[in-house]
Design goal:
The structure is a homodimer.
Chain A lengths: L13 H13 L9 H11 L4 H4 E3 L3 H10 L3 E4 L2 H6 L2 H6 L3 E4 L4 H9 L4 H10 L6 E4 L3 H12 L7 E4 L7 H9 L6 E4 L6 H12 L3
Parallel strand pairs in A: 2-3, 2-4, 4-5, 5-6
Antiparallel strand pairs in A: 1-6
Helix pairs in contact in A: 1-2, 2-11, 7-8, 8-9, 9-10
Keywords (chains A, B): Cobalamin biosynthesis, Isomerase
InterPro entries (chains A, B): Cbl_synth_CobH/CbiC (IPR003722), CobH/CbiC_sf (IPR036588)
Protein name (chains A, B): Precorrin-8X methylmutase
């Protein structure tokens, strides 16, 4: 086969075919059935099989998240890119919503006044919401650290934390802080890897199961 | 050190510190000086050092791209997520613009009428633009295949193709098609890896150099 001979797959079957390839290449690797679709969708979005080992789920995190989605939960992201990657039709169908406060003027002002980052200020803003939310953090470790503090102070109680920032400074540590929490559901990509695309893929994998 | 002891880095110095860590971990690895900032920013955005080997640059692709940016080039992405990841302040400062046609009604209609995908139809729409563009394709291999066809038919002449779709079906092949082109500047992530985040990181790395 010439390397650029295209595989004939109908557009609407590409995703199914991709998941077949992922399943095949995972081979004998055992995935927790409850977590399987999330793990496979993250591999689908990254072509990176390391996520089969990196993704850490608190007990019944998926089940708890699906319940929150059925109740029309609000999802907070730390980037507009993460927000853009979440399937809007699925959100609408499920009566859920997604917000990102990073570019809000009041967040910029609050951050300046309190000498903090906009990522932290976004989490403070979310702590004032009337209902508990799902947080999908794919970029800012400072957002995860602030969530951890707000939880410890009893000011916020996330329905789920998707903790998948990517990078080199305080990323590993911020995720370990979330992993140390008890009683808060989480899905965390242990280590340096992650990203807004991974955060969005996890949200979509949850939405598609409802 | 407890694993969640945070490194003290000022918010405005996190990126600098991240690049220092990347440089340090690349060690003796030789990068083409012209391509170095693009490669390092992709690693910064993915925490994946495979990109030090995966990213293939046509001769002087970066130099040619910087010239296009100085002239206020239009950038076309294949996802709104990719568009969302491109630094809007940098675009504005440089008089450049970014568009994504995927969600346009005329694109949906054209795709339906011509029994093609919206990704292909987006490229057809871009081929009617009055000026040559930079394409940043992080998701749809069909968009890359259509670009290849339009180039071969003499209907489009991109200033640069950023060819970094991610995935398992026709992704590798579509990138090899772009790599086979002569006289068209490209930056391609060979293999399965890539993504809208990678496409946006490459655009930003170019913008920041002007």
């Amino acid at each position: 086969m010439k390397q650029y001979e295209l595989e004939r797959v109908l557009p609407e079957e590409i995703e199914k075919r991709s998941f077949e390839i992922i399943t095949q290449e995972l081979g004998e690797k055992k995935l927790e059935p409850e977590n399987e679709l999330v793990i496979k969708r993250v591999i689908h979005t990254s072509a990176d099989f390391e996520y089969a080992d990196n993704l850490i789920f608190s007990p019944h995190a998926v089940e708890i998240a699906l319940k929150a989605i059925k109740e029309g939960v609000q999802i907070i992201t730390d980037t507009n890119m993460g927000k853009a990657g979440i399937n809007k039709a699925a959100l609408k169908r499920l009566n859920c919503a997604v917000d990102c406060y990073m570019a809000d003027e009041d967040v910029a002002e609050y951050a300046k006044k309190n000498e903090t980052t906009r990522a932290c200020a976004s989490m403070d803003k979310a702590s004032n919401l009337p209902k508990d939310c799902i947080f999908a953090i794919g970029n800012a470790p400072t957002a995860l650290v602030r969530l951890y503090e707000l939880i410890k102070e009893g000011k916020i109680r996330p329905r789920l934390i998707i903790g998948v920032p990517v990078g080199f400074v305080n990323v590993v540590q911020s995720k370990e802080m979330i992993l140390s929490l008890e009683g808060i559901p989480y899905i965390v990509a242990r280590g340096r890897k992650g990203g807004s695309n991974v955060a969005a893929a996890i949200v979509n994998a949850l939405l598609y199961q409802v």
